[in-house]
Amino acid sequence: MSRPFLSANARRFVLSDAETSTSAGEWSVSSAELAIATRTPFTIRQRLLHGGRQEGVTLIEVDNGKLQFAVIPTRGMSLLQGKCGGVTLGWNSPVKEIVNPAFVQLGARGGLGWLDGFNELLVRCGVEWAGHPGIDNGELLSLHGRIGNTPASKVVVVVDDQPPYRIHVRGTVVEQTFKFSDYALETDVSTEPGSASFRVSDKLVNRSDYEREFQIIYHSNFGPPLLESASRFVAPVKQVVPFNAHAARDLSNWTSYRGPSERFGEEVFDVVPYARADGSTTVMLHNASAVCGVRIDYNVKELPHFTLWKNTDTMKEGYVTGLEPGTGYPHPRSFERKHARVPTLAAGASRSFTIEYAVLSGAGPVADVVADIAKIQGNRPLQVDAAPENS
Amino acid sequence: MSRPFLSANARRFVLSDAETSTSAGEWSVSSAELAIATRTPFTIRQRLLHGGRQEGVTLIEVDNGKLQFAVIPTRGMSLLQGKCGGVTLGWNSPVKEIVNPAFVQLGARGGLGWLDGFNELLVRCGVEWAGHPGIDNGELLSLHGRIGNTPASKVVVVVDDQPPYRIHVRGTVVEQTFKFSDYALETDVSTEPGSASFRVSDKLVNRSDYEREFQIIYHSNFGPPLLESASRFVAPVKQVVPFNAHAARDLSNWTSYRGPSERFGEEVFDVVPYARADGSTTVMLHNASAVCGVRIDYNVKELPHFTLWKNTDTMKEGYVTGLEPGTGYPHPRSFERKHARVPTLAAGASRSFTIEYAVLSGAGPVADVVADIAKIQGNRPLQVDAAPENS
Amino acid sequence: MSRPFLSANARRFVLSDAETSTSAGEWSVSSAELAIATRTPFTIRQRLLHGGRQEGVTLIEVDNGKLQFAVIPTRGMSLLQGKCGGVTLGWNSPVKEIVNPAFVQLGARGGLGWLDGFNELLVRCGVEWAGHPGIDNGELLSLHGRIGNTPASKVVVVVDDQPPYRIHVRGTVVEQTFKFSDYALETDVSTEPGSASFRVSDKLVNRSDYEREFQIIYHSNFGPPLLESASRFVAPVKQVVPFNAHAARDLSNWTSYRGPSERFGEEVFDVVPYARADGSTTVMLHNASAVCGVRIDYNVKELPHFTLWKNTDTMKEGYVTGLEPGTGYPHPRSFERKHARVPTLAAGASRSFTIEYAVLSGAGPVADVVADIAKIQGNRPLQVDAAPENS
After folding, report:
1. A365's torsion region: left (phi>0), alpha (psi -120 to 50) or beta?
2. Which strand (E) or helix (H) includes residue B105?
3. Which residues of B touch C209 (CB under 8 A)?
4. For residue C2, with 0-12 CB atoms within 10 Å meaning exposed, 13-18 middle and 19 or more buried, which class applies?
5. Which runs of consecutive H residues, i.e. helices, occur in C10-134?
6. Is C163 helix (H, G, I), strand (E, B) or coil?
7. Cβ of B51 and C21 within 8 Å?
8. How many CB pairs under 8 A join B and C?
9. pTM for the complete prediction?
10. Which residue of C has its CA nearest to A134?
11. What is the greatest pairwise CA distance in chain C?
């Protein structure tokens, strides 16, 4: 890259690094301090959290001048929540604290311990395994794997030194067990100053000398105001299959949402989206009046499957929907393997995953995305399977 | 409340709060610093512990001028021990450190991991479940639940601004799992300057939108000098049932204690106490010569069942007895449910539990309590069941 | 002891102590600061580690002027690695971080969670149990026990105040569970300034009032340059038995090593060494050209069994061999008990274990140790069992 005026050091901040055993603790930087003249000034701040089960957790808050979001290095670089004008990204979980994985026992409740800390806008599920607990190869695999409860080994903030001065929060999360797996997930969450969107660009590296299975699901979760009664999920869909008999009963309404509903629990749908010729696709969640929404762009070559998690339970229990591009669905790994949805990575190989989240404000932008998605669908058929897959 | 000279800020100290991510660290206050002229000066101090498995634990030490006790925010607001003149409350566990829950794996040993950190004067067992491990609803429930190994989310010290200037150590302990439970236990341990007693006033709130089962047992534990050979447990008793066949063999001596006894292990008795008309009741443990004791007052409307845990093993193994008011007995939850001792809390509902512990010094005070308790019993019959309940 | 010029305080440094709740944090001392005039100046330094799963771990680095090694108080006083001239002791595990036990769930993967943090030169396995996971007395015993994932309760650095001014890093690791066990392992790793060797002198104390079983295996691990194709294990051997059918297939080559080998996995051999009349014995690992090696001296009265772990897998997966004196072999405890290899300690009793590790540089020193070992063997027979023991 030709960067004549590169001043790399001034704009790259190592916030923690296990290799050098460094940790910045409380830290912040602003566009003014960096002498970057963007139209919207930006700030990036790292906090060290206290109290209850969040003692010792670090949190990185980014405000690009228009959009605010937070990344949790201690919890696998998950995104806590976002905000853009009046639109909140994320949801209101009964779990309020940002739980230190030291206080999470993933094996508890027959492998459901992950639920003790679940409250994120985006938590990656994986990578040695993801999905519901189950015995596989004689081992109990806990819900959604370990990556979301693994502290990042190296965390770096980078501000590009050329316009548009994209802001990156990068973190390497190492998931490994001697003799079992050695994965590095190199994450990058980035945004442009003044933009209403952010991008997740991850690279999963199999550092082992052996080919290994992996699974990854981008569990992206939204509550009000995007989610409300009559909100809609919009996507170009090739096939939809109810996750289980419970979801099958409500198949006819699978793209629309109820308001907060007592005893609703959850419904899950396994979706195969259509894509443009280059594999790119777009899905959207918009509110009832279609004046605000979130657009999610990614590539089905990277993430061929998509899970729609409709958890329209009461507000207190967690009124939330998950839009979840993934390498497979959240069935137990043995089930997924049977259905050929557990990919492998060769020794030393890597796979990249890029997802862009954009906040849509106004009827026009929402309608535009509806049109975009309709164009991807074109006149291609939608296959609706009435019954779940056989296990 | 009409408090004309209220100076709330000066006498309320937030020691930690997850919501605002604050933590006071090392901290102390004294009656002198507060300009409170009590007959006995008092101090309250928070320490941050180091070393071994207690690294990172906070401890709040209260000295009311006559009675000293310590509260452990990191361990669910348990009470570590107390001291009043020559009388020690609590016991000498082989576990000396105040163990950070980060180093406790509750699921270990088939659900007995709780024993790795057990050394308290008072540890609450609960609240989603308590009692011995067992499979219930397909889930292994670990010994005595999670609340005693959950760091408090908010800790506040309050000194009343009116005589008698009662000192409160308050902590909210949140026990929750997405989709399973959302309990807040609002604890308050308080004492009056110069007093020989302290009061535990807890409120359990079901923050969920659903009715939920709960269990709570106040596992209050005493060793020497209150416990010795020929110490006695005194209570107004309606019914006593041996916990198991082992306890049944020693039923005739159930209210008296052995000295430290090799290979004794433990004996447990399930007790239904009588109460006064208002539900209040009194139980006591006193030493062999009846010159010192601990009086425990509580209400059977709040805590209808009482467990007597007689662990008169050797001094090094832990010579201790537990006097345990509770919503039920420490059988596995499925057993307790079968016997209708697993209460529920409606959505948003709460239950309060108040227990007062008073140190008795001298033959007179002990005899007075014996008389009090005899008066509660009156001529009402005691039912002694020779055999344990059927499971 | 007659030490006329004893200045004990100046040369004894308490780095942490749970009993007094002290912790030195970052700390260092040098021979110059101690005004000790050794031929080779030495330094001792404690660091507090940051980043990823090693957040909060303490590490003590010793440089005796010739040999460098590091002790990990947070991980049971394990030795991380050593270096002496061009010879590295230890190995290159895929696990790079020094993992805080707070992030290790020993019960995971059916009891294989220990593998999440395994990367040491020396990790003690034990002490209530060691070896492979298995159900015993109705309880799942996790791989290699708990001692290596237990933070030391008291850590002291001592420099002898008389020549040769031996440097000691001492740590007490308490492994206990109420009603199950109460062990204190008093460890001491020491070295003389300018020496190429270090000594591990441990004392295991059963603080319980009951006789208890215990197991301890000194899992000492070496990779390149000592381990390479055609490296040799040299020992005076009375009996060798393959650990399992897999190892049995390669029995004829059991004392020589392959280079890094894909899909090799591991081979394990159960060895009974011969000893000198006083019980002392010597084993060695040397490289292919026999110009460098590590000599290990210990006493078979203390540690009668020896396990040779040959994990000559690829470099990235972990190319490593374990030379492991122990009270038994790493079969599950129930298996070991059946074969009378689970010793007990009476109430209050203790057992000591001393192992000396010396780096050998040059053909002469290696040949000398070969001769020493041959002298121990003398003309005593070697029994090679073709088949593993029956379970």
Report:
1. alpha
2. none
3. 262, 313-317
4. exposed
5. 108-111
6. coil
7. yes
8. 100
9. 0.96
10. C109
11. 62
Q: Which of residues 33-62 of C touch A (CB under 8 A)?
A: 47, 49-56
Report the distance separating Cα C165 and Cα C167, nearest Å: 6
Nearest to A123, CA basis, from A296, A322, A351: A322
Find the radius of gyration of the CA atoms of chain A: 20
Q: What is the pLDDT of residue A3?
A: 39
Closest to B56 measured CA to CA, from B115, B112, B98, B84: B98
Rg (CA), chain B: 20
| Beta carbons within 10 angstroms of residue A38's beta carbon | 18
My answer on whether omega of the bond before A127 falls inside 30° of 0, hence cis, is yes
Work out the average pLDDT over A26-40: 94
Q: Which residue's structure tokens are 């309990």? A: B183
**Number of other CB atoms surrounding residue C211 within 10 Å:** 12
Quick one: pLDDT at residue C172? 98
Written as one letter, the residue type at A364 is G
Q: What is the ipTM of this complex?
A: 0.95
Euclidean distance between CA atoms A184 and A234, whole angstroms = 33
Which residue among C50, C107, C112 places its CB closest to the CB of A22?
C50
Nearest-CB residue to C94 (from A138, A153, A178): A178
CA distance C209 to chain B (A): 6
CB-based contact, C262 to chain A, within 8 Å: yes
Residues 6+ apart with CB under 8 A from B163: none
Residues C79-116: tens digit of each pLDDT:
999 999 999 999 999 999 999 999 999 999 999 999 99
Structural domains of chain C, with CATH: 8-384 (2.70.98.10)
Note whether A154 contacts C50, CB cutoff 8 Å.
no
Judge whether A289 and A274 are in contact, CB under 8 Å.
no
Q: Which helix (H) or strand (E) holds B357?
A: strand B350-361
Q: How confident is the prediction for chain C on average, in pLDDT?
A: 96
Q: Give the pLDDT confidence score for residue C10 in this predicted structure.
A: 55
Give all chains having 3 or more CB-to-CB distances under 8 Å with chain B.
Answer: A, C
Rounded CA separation C339/B222 (Å): 43
Residues 6+ apart with CB under 8 A from B55: B49, B100, C23, C56, C151
Regions of chain B short of the pLDDT cut 50: 1-9
Q: Which helix (H) or strand (E) holds B315?
A: helix B315-318
Chain B interface includes A314 (CB < 8 A): yes
CA B281, CA B275: separation in Å to the nearest integer? 5
pLDDT at A369 over 70: yes
Residue A29: CB atoms within 10 A of its CB come to 18
Beta strand B350-361 with A292-299 is: unpaired
SS3 state at B109: helix
Structure tokens at C150: 């237990």
The DSSP result for C217-281, as a single string, is EEEEEE-TTTSSTT-EEE--EEEEEESSHHHHTTGGGTTB--SS-TT---EEEEEEE---TTSEE
Q: B250, B233, B210: which is closest to B288 by C-alpha?
A: B233
- Chain-chain contact of A51 with B106 (C-beta, under 8 angstroms): no
Q: What is the mean pLDDT of each run of 10 residues along chain C (391 residues)?
A: 42 96 95 93 98 98 98 98 96 98 97 98 98 95 98 97 95 98 98 98 98 98 98 98 95 97 96 98 98 98 98 97 98 98 98 98 98 98 95 72
Tell how strand B154-159 and strand C122-127 pair up.
Answer: unpaired
Q: Where are the alpha helices (DSSP H) in chain C?
A: 108-111, 245-248, 315-318, 333-338, 363-377
Q: What is the count of residue pairs from A and C with beta carbons less than 8 Å apart? A: 100
Please name which of B205, A102, B388 lies closest in space to residue C105, comparing C-alpha atoms.
Answer: A102
Question: What is the pLDDT averaged over residues A101-120?
Answer: 97
